Each structure stands twice: as C-alpha cells, then as structure tokens.
C-alpha cells in the first residue's frame, strides 16, 4: 500500500499551507539548524540541504567560468532598464545551468547592490548603479525581475538586495556608525530599496556591516518598520558574512553572542552567515538564547517559515515541475551578444572635438596599462572568453594597423649581492596570450603555487630580469615578469612570478618602494613585510627581520615608449584607469580622485607626440581629470566591461555604434569638492548632483553622441486626484546617423519651505531613433515620488503646495525644455510642539552632533561630544498663546554634568537645563526649566549641547 504524500509535497496547495505543514513536522533542533546559511537535509522527511548565498552581481561569480557582463556601475551607465533586466535573466539562467551540474551553486542570489554611489571614493563604487535613488531603484528592480523570472508560481532565482542600509564606506566598516537624519533616510536611502521590493521580484535583503545611528544594521528596527511593510511577500533577511558575531564582537554592542544573535533574530534576521559551513557555533548560541528566554520558539518559527517559503518558491520541493530546467543556459550565443551589447551601451563619451569616430584606414597606437587587459573584480566570474581594447581595435576592419605599448617602466632590481632574476623554469606559464578570445586560467589558479622557483639574486654578473613596473597610485606597484606573470607571494613567503593577475581577498601582488639611504626597501603589502634575499630566494621577511636594500634601475621609461608609438600613428588611444583589486575595493576606500601620476604622465607624453590623442578611462569609479579635459580632443569612460569590453570599445571608437552611455554619478574637479567619507548628510554637505552647488567636471547624466537630438512640445500635468504627474515630450534625431538618446526628466520645487534638491531625476528612458526619426514619449510618475519630501515637522511624506518646474533633457545640466506645474492644497503648518513636543532627531539643521540610538532595540536620539558644542535647529514651532516651561529627556553616561540650552529665537527666551550623570547611555532622565517670558506664536528653536550628552526629546507646557 502506497503511503499518502505529505501535504507539504502537494504542489497545488498554497505556499503558506505547505510551509505550515512542513514547519509542524520539524523538530525544534531541526528548525534551529535551518537558521544557519548551510541548512542541513532532513533525511526522514526527504528534504534536501539548502544554502543561502550565491553571488551574481554582473554574471555568476565565484563558481568558475561564466559570462562576464560589465560591472554594475557600467550597467548603471546604460540607463537601460530592459537591458539590465535581460542581463539579470542571463545571469539567472546560468545560475540554473550551473546548479544542474553542481549542487554547491545556490539559487538564493545575493544581488544586486542598491547602495547609492553617494561618495566616489567608496571602495565598492563598482558594485552600485548610481548616485541617484530613482535610477538605482529602476535598474535594481529590472535586474531582480530578470533573476526572478516571470513564472506565476516558481522563481528562477531568489534575489537579495545588498546592503541595508546607508553603507558607503570600507574604513572601519563594521564599527563606524552612519549618522542618518530622517530626511536623508526617507528621501535618499529607503527609495533605492523600496522600488525593487515593490516590484515583487525581491526575495529579501542583506544588512550591511556598519551601524546606523549607533545601532548595528543587523538589529535595525527599520526592517520591520519599513522594509516588510512594502510587500505582502515574506521577505528573507540574510546576514552578511560574519556579521552576527560582530554584534558582541567587534561592535561590542551586546555582552555576548547569544544576546547578539537573539537580538538579530528578533529584529528580523532569518539566515545567519557565520563561521563558513560550520553551523555549530550559530546553533549553540541560538539554542542558549532560547533556553535563557532571549528568544521564543515563535521567533524561530517565523524566521524558518520565511526561509521555507523562499525554498518552495524556488521549486526545491517539487522535482520534475521545475519550469526553468529547459530555460537554463550557459555561455550561449545570445549571452555573448548580450555581453557585447551591454558593454557597448555602457560606454560614455565625455568629450569629442570631432576626432571620433575614427576614419577608416587609420593607424592606431593603443597604449596604457589597460590597453591589452580585461580586468575582473571581486564579484566577477572567471572569463570564458575575452577581448582587450588593443585586440578589438587590431581586429576591427576600419583599422589599418594597431601597435601596443603598455606604458610601464622597464626596470631592473639590484641588491648589494647582484641583480634579481626570474629563474627560467618560471617561463612555462601555459597561459593565454593577451588579446586571445579565450582566457586560459582563473587568476587564482597560479597565485599560490609553490612548485615554481622563487625570484633570486644572481651574483657574478648574471643577466638581470627586466620587470614591467606599474604604479597604481599612492606608491602601490605591481611587478610583471617578461612572460606576463605578476610577482606574487605564496603561503611560504617566497616571491614568484606566478600570478596571471592581481587578485584575491588579500592581494599578494602589490608592493611599495620605501626610500632607504641610497636605495629602497621593498615592502610586500599583502603581508606588510619587507623583502629580503635568502639562500632559497627572495621572500617576505619574518616578524622582526629587516629587509634588504634594493636599487631600482630604469632601462626604459613608459612615457618614452608611449611617445615613440604615438609619433608613428595617426591616432593614439590611451587606455588608463584602475585595477579593481588595487586602491579601491571591498575593505579599502580610495584616498583621491586623481589619476595615478604614472598614468597622468602617459597621456601627456602621448599628446605631446601626437595631438590626435583619445583618453579612455576604464575604471570602477570617477576620476578628476580636468587637465585632460582641457587638453585632449576626446575622452571616454567605461566601467570594466567584462568579456566583450575590447570589441565594444572598438565598435564605439570606429563608429559602428553611436555612444549613448550616461554618467551614473557626478565627476568632480578635485578632492576638495568632496565631503568627508563618513558624512552621509548630503543636504548639509551639499553632495551629489541633488545638492552640489559647484560646477562639476562632468555632471550626473552626462554623455555625448555621434548624432544630435532635439526636444519639443513638452507638456506637463499634475493630476492630484489620481496622484500622478504626467509628462510628454517629443524627441527627434536631428543628426545624420542612428543612435540612442537617454531622455531624462527632472523636477524641482521653486519656493520650498525647506532645502530641496536643485533638481531630482523622476523618470528616464533610453530610446533608439533612426536619423530623422522622432517619437512622442509619455511618462506617468506617482506625484508623491516626483514632488514629495519627508516632512520632519510632522513625521510624514508630503507634497508641499506650490509651483514646481519639470525639465527634460540630456543630462542634469543639459536641460532642453521646462514647464511649470502648480500643486494645490493646504500647507502643512508649523510644528505642533505644545501638543506633540519635539523629537530631537527631527531637526531641520544641525552642527557638531551625531545621531545615536535611544535604546538597543529602537529609536533615534542626538548626541554631542566632549570637545565642541553641538547645535540643533527646529523651524516653525507653534507655542500657542504662551509656553512657560520645557522638559528635556536626556542621558549622560560620563561623570559630571552637561548643559543643554534651549532658545526660542526672536523672543529672548532662553533656558539652561543641566543634565546630571545617569551612569549609562540608555538611562534616561527628565529635567525641567522655566522659559522666561512665556513665549508664544510660531518660532524657531535652537538647542545647544555642551559636554557629552544624549538628547531624546523636548516637551513644552
């Protein structure tokens, strides 16, 4: 007799019913085990193992060879929602195809990253789409739709957004707190997540390592207060790697790991990524937390239920019904074409004085450190195929000839005992030649080899090896042997020419030369140790051991070789930029916008030898290149473009494709225009295109074309009853060739009651138009999204009545048409302070303060430090007929007394409140003082905080 199938096996039942049935059959121990990233199989129920987490930021990562698309910031530069959706679909299809062969491949995809590119020195700039929340939300939602698929029941993959919340720094990323005021939270940070979540294609989010307002993101009350209110789908929250242990570890926020994990679970974290595949510490800590009453079984069941729901939607319990089995595909011609198209659409033409496109039959010198490279980043897959810029131009039918010079300095290294040599046995690389269509090896495969002989110092006049030396900025250098391999340090400490590319979590291929006497000490940055010669070869010195002195002899300067190549060419293409593993990456922020000095010298040398010089910046982030913009006839930027980068660039340079990429973030003229990296208050800091008051090098949305476009017949209507802003415009291609135009729609408030953006992007569309073609475009934007702001006085989203200007154009500063639109309604009115009081965190302006946590679970307060007074300003406070006293809720952990001064501006009324030590940052006290003169009416209020003190709220009577 055949047993009845268990109810959770019934594919016709609802996901909710199936989850409830399976959850009820699991033991408590089995449920707790499912909270770790690596959930075990339950043999007695026939349920398979499952792990959360599979990286696929721009193609499948960390699982070997895959189709590699442009970096996320490059996808952002396309401004093309449909293209990004198709890239997500291709990545999801490859995840499924890899999963069919390897169960280690996960279907819970930790992508995309929707952190906003607020600050261009952020080390992970390459991972985000844009500095603008509208564009980021649109592209993030598109990528998720591709990853999720469009089946009504099953999901191709389950996308998880990274990283919740306000995460744009790598310096002290697990211990630094982001001070996030209410307006920046609601107007800037949350919309980037809200758009994708509301699209219905997001399975969950991953909290960031940092703290926000003094509280770890993994304990964020915003997960329940906001995130999970945007959708009926039970979103899964997956922790970042190691972050659960940080709560009681590096952050010291709670006294022990059971408390830390319990707090995270109560806040809404469902899957704990900690200790790799070893679930024992997580299970032990959660079990102890349960036994101590820190969590309940209901807390566990809620989290496990959300995880099981995701697994049911992925079809894990329905073998044979998988609709994506036939859809799964890997390295198809369609994916290859899509990779090329995406790389083409990502190219941004920054400047062109008529040099581009290149004329047929041109002789080209392709020079610079990235001219014959295809660089990968930490979240790339290994290349199945590649084309470098040099190979793309060399093979293009319009190019008569192409020569290549990488511009590195050729050097020899000498110690007191002789020259440094690479033994001949190291020459057998087995690797692919630069420019080959197929990359031979993952860069990590050779890096750690110990069977290759180390570099040696050869005495007795033996011939020295000539190395290629590249300085990537800040004195950080790489050394490359004649066979193309980079000098690397393996686990045994010896230096070998063994790496195809710099890379790895800790890069082992970077060095710096430190002046020492008449020579230099050579320091290996991966180990932090100096290099010395031993009987076995060159190695990183041991603890406390001194390094040898090296003398650097230059046999050829890179700029001389570049100048020679440039002089013999019709056109020079200088390809400069960054290596994504060096000077700006996960764990490491950049220190400057400047191009590395060696690369700066290269374009200057090329231009001096040949004025027909094009600078192509291939990078994960913006540069400040004002001199190049002034001197050169043409500049382009592209993010690292993946496997088809070289072909795509060649097709743009030669005019097969009219460039239409647009900058997804502002390019500034210098470091002095940037706020501090940890200053997240873009309103006060006047940061990003939204508030920046200066003139940028290139504005947000900038990008030129080989054709021209005209905008006419702009019509704007605000339908307040329907809550929609309707915008229509006609766009015409007035040039002589087909091309794409990126139509950008911006809005600004003309007489706002609070500081508002100069203009904010509210809609965009990339359209292809043949020469002479015109098209009428229509946009319908929710009125709240288009014109609204967060009203801190009343803690709500509001559209202020008044006049707004809606503009359309080709960038945030190239506006081709504008129209005014009036929005009616009653004004919000002043703050009702007599009735509702003042929450300290709801200030209009501040100086010398930071936001902090009211309790470990919820609430924001304002803190001032010991050195300088802090100030808070609250505008338009309604005191009624008169107000006689003020009550302040505050805390002071330190001994002694702090002073908080309350001034009702324009009345002379001023009260000083002395806050005694409460002994604990969470021990709050209330102090009261009279307000002289019993002020009334609508007034501004200023608080001045002196001494270490935390302020929660004020009440008036």
TrEMBL record:
Listed PROSITE patterns: CBM6
Biased composition (Basic and acidic residues): 844-859
Top-level lineage group: Bacteria
Protein name: Exo-alpha-(1->6)-L-arabinopyranosidase
Domain CBM6: 836-957
Signal peptide (residue range): none
Alphabetical keyword list: Hydrolase, Signal
Family according to the record: Belongs to the glycosyl hydrolase 3 family.
UniProt-listed Pfam families: CBM_6 (PF03422), Fn3-like (PF14310), Glyco_hydro_3 (PF00933), Glyco_hydro_3_C (PF01915)
Molecular function per GO: alpha-L-arabinofuranosidase activity; beta-glucosidase activity; carbohydrate binding; xylan 1,4-beta-xylosidase activity
Any one GO biological process: arabinan catabolic process
Alphabetized CDD domains for the sequence: beta-trefoil_FSCN_BglX-like, CBM6_xylanase-like
Function comment: Catalyzes the hydrolysis of a non-reducing terminal alpha-L-arabinopyranosidic linkage in ginsenoside Rb2 (alpha-L-arabinopyranosyl-(1->6)-alpha-D-glucopyranosyl) to release alpha-D-glucopyranosyl (Rd). It is not able to hydrolyze alpha-L-arabinofuranosyl-(1->6)-alpha-D-glucopyranosyl (Rc).
InterPro entries: Actin-crosslinking, BXL, CBM6, Cellulose-bd_IV, Fn3-like, Galactose-bd-like_sf, GH, Glyco_hydro_3_C
SMART domains linked: CBD_IV, Fn3_like
Listed Gene3D superfamilies: 2.60.120.380, Galactose-binding domain-like, Glycoside hydrolase family 3 C-terminal domain, Glycoside hydrolase, family 3, N-terminal domain, Immunoglobulins
Region described as Disordered: 839-863
